[in-house]
Amino acid sequence: MISRLVDRIVDTGAPIVVGLDPKLSFIPDRIKDKAFEEKGVSLEGAAEAFWQYNKEIIDSIYDIVPAVKPQIAMYEELGIPGLITFKKTVEYCKEKGLIVIGDIKRGDIGSTSESYAVGHLGSIKIGEETFRGFDEDFATVNPYLGSDGVKPFISVCNREDKGIFVLVKTSNPSSGEFQDRIIDGRPLYEHVGEQVEKWGLESMDGSYSNVGAVVGATYPEMGKVLREIMPHAYILVPGYGAQGGKGKDLVHFFNKDGLGAIVNSSRGIIAAWQNENYKQFADGQVGDAARAAVFRYEKRHCGCT
Amino acid sequence: MISRLVDRIVDTGAPIVVGLDPKLSFIPDRIKDKAFEEKGVSLEGAAEAFWQYNKEIIDSIYDIVPAVKPQIAMYEELGIPGLITFKKTVEYCKEKGLIVIGDIKRGDIGSTSESYAVGHLGSIKIGEETFRGFDEDFATVNPYLGSDGVKPFISVCNREDKGIFVLVKTSNPSSGEFQDRIIDGRPLYEHVGEQVEKWGLESMDGSYSNVGAVVGATYPEMGKVLREIMPHAYILVPGYGAQGGKGKDLVHFFNKDGLGAIVNSSRGIIAAWQNENYKQFADGQVGDAARAAVFRYEKRHCGCT
Prior knowledge:
Two copies of one chain form a homodimer. Chain A is of the alpha/beta class. The first copy, chain A, is built from twelve helices and 14 strands. The model of chain A has no long low-confidence stretch (mean pLDDT 94). Chains A, B: It comes from Butyrivibrio proteoclasticus (strain ATCC 51982 / DSM 14932 / B316).
């Protein structure tokens, strides 16, 4: 699966993943009003608004970015109707040729991790037929439970040609509380990074592994070290923009050939219509603003502006 | 919320939580056949079988145990239909007076953790009305992202009188890979335990805190130390039975008054009808076998056998 992502990145020339993390406050009234009218002022109505909003964004960006990353928490907040929108979003993005990274941060003991892996990346046989729960292309995984919490995901990746990104160093301010603590002279996140590289060798797909890593844009120096510790891991970089990560810092996450990392931008793209840099779209042109924001991001990332 | 759990433990005299972790292989043919006939040999059919199976168990044990712990991964494996069964199970257990611990092991950066917390423990305002996603009483939380990943859960707990159990030392064989690594002379799990105690002081409810801890039964010596480090945390103890934790080891997790811990048993109760110790129920009397297994467990735990 990672080779498919790399191909898409090369084709689009954009190492960007768009975080499809809807919030009601990002959605223009015209979409909300219609959704509430059709489905009620309810969880169902809110979930319908998420879906229509996502659809406008997807329709406007699917040809210029390689991938999207829906954050399942935003959908789970709305209970079952929200998760139905999550599933519809995953399906629609795949129809449009986008690669879908389910930002689910799951992780449990072995047999339980297997259930998560099957539900999100794999398939289950019932009777004579095979069914798929959510069927993302990639999922993010929490490593706190160690190898037997991660390996069931890798087994499913190998069986189904899917991939994972393991949390190594997250982008939030208190990520250091445990992740930066020194063990045998090196921070915990480096130890986790070493394991990611080791796990990844069990699932190579071209020059990179189906086992990637999450390393926050907010910590570029750590990204530099981790880039070296995990030569086969693609790095998913959240925290760019809204969380404080800056463009020039991103260079550390990439290899010399411009590959090796994919940067997530969520609010900066999906809520661009609310940003004063895109005043021409302030009437709620969600999709046009998102497309403009992607182009702007690309230019900035190339150092053209 | 923790005081409600303590009251229920005292009333039932049973510091046991029943893990509602269904698998198709645990379910008798009579339930599966009927479910598949009604809903098809499909995810919907399997989810219906989970529901009917859960219902038989709940109806047989609701008066003798204080709490249940559905493991959401088992439901998520079946996609949306599975999660609908999860939600129905949560609701039904609460109607029966059981306290529900959603074993969801969520955890993310601050704003995202807040969405999980709202979806599982809290409420969301849409228009003028308030809605609830899954509405468990407690949820399990992964601490890898540090305080700002955990505190949004605590805010929701304080607002809604709910609780969490934070993963400190998990029951699986490779839990030591990161959790046992030595930092400033002490294993990581002790540092996490210290934080749990600190976080917990922000959410006291009687003698204990709404912020509890998960500590695996498979590591009794560590349980002993953690019991001391976290005097206000209730300890949720998984891994008893199937994963190798033994009855005599459980004593370390409890305080002298018999409180302070609640032990999870899943397969040993919900699949008791398949166990050779309960041959009289081998025709698929799921509920009767589960009830017998709870009584047997209680006797063993009291040291009566």
